[in-house]
Amino acid sequence: MNEPNSPLSQPPTADRFQTDPYEPEVGSLPDRSGQDTEKVNKTGTTTIGITTSEGVVIATDMRASLGGRFVSNKNVQKVEQIHPNAALTLVGSVGGAQSFIRSLRAEVNLYEARRGEDMSMQALSTLAGNFARGGPFFAINPILGGVDDDGHHVYSIDPAGGVMQDDYTVTGSGLTVAYGTLEDRYEDDMSNEEAKEVAAAAINAAAERDTGSGNGIYLADVTSEGVDINGYDFDELLQ
Questions:
Q1: The whole model's pTM is what?
Q2: Among 13, 19, 37, 45, which one carries the catalytic annotation?
Q3: Burial 126-153, CB ≥16 within 10 A → b, else e
Q4: Catalytic (active site) residue 45
Q5: Which of 9, 114, 161, 223 is a Cys-bridge partner for 2, taking CB atoms 3.0 to 4.6 Å apart?
Q6: Domains delineated in the chain
């Protein structure tokens, strides 16, 4: 028999089955148990964006993991085209990052349909920051890289919606190792081909120490002509 004050003896209340009409607040994340978090596919990852004399190079590794301990996929494409001349990386939870990319693509297409022109990189980065701050995208930290009439641009977007532009940037669990290689080898006015080798070396270095990074590299070659994304083994890019 149940104790009089035990949870099983009490009738269910409306509070247990109804959502507070004032929740969730903008920018808040749903409560998740530790067990749920362990089951979420995460990119872990090392992602790099570099501006060049020709455009932008974005590089990512290929590994996804469960709870940061088990490799759940060895061939994840963590960079996607979201604009005729821009690409965005996936960092954080795979589902959140994929939803983020779909939302941005839809807004970019709507902007072009309404105005008859492509969205500028400044507008796109602002939109991405607003989505990251106010949307249910669950701890993402992507890199946006693109080319427009004002030049070649790389932005990091933090989970709170902060947008920072730089000549080059790194996000993800392997960033501390990758930054060291990038700081040593980056030069102004590199070509896209030179930047690809530098980015590959930085991601390879991160993969040696970061369990969330590895299994190869995807490179996005972004120019005024468009976006070209291809996957490689490290040996194909490093001499």
A1: 0.79
A2: 45
A3: ebbbebbbebebbebbbbbbbbbeeebb
A4: yes
A5: 9
A6: 40-237 (3.60.20.10)
